[in-house]
Amino acid sequence: MLITPLEHTTMLHRRTLLSSIAVAAVLGAASSFSLAAPAADPIKVGHFASLTGAEATFGQSTDKGIRLAVKEINAAGGINGRPVELITYDNQGKSQEAGNAVLRLITQDKVVAVLGEVASSRSLAGGQVCQEKGVPMISPSSTNPRVTKGRDYVFRVCFIDDFQAYALAKFCKDNLKFTKAAILYDQTEDYSKGLRAEFTKFYTALGGTIVSEQTYSGGDNDFSAQLTSIRATDPQIIFAPGYYTAGGNIAIQARKLGIKAPLLGGDGWDSSQLAAIGKEAIDGSYYSNHSAPDQPQMQEFIAKFRKEYGGETPDALTGLGYDAMLVLADAMKRAKSLDGPTLRDAIAATKDLKGVTGSITIDSERNTKKPIVIVQMKKGQPSWIADIANPGDLKKVLEDLKAKK
Question: What is the CB-side half-sphere exposure of residue 161 using CA atoms within 13 A?
Answer without folding.
Answer: 27
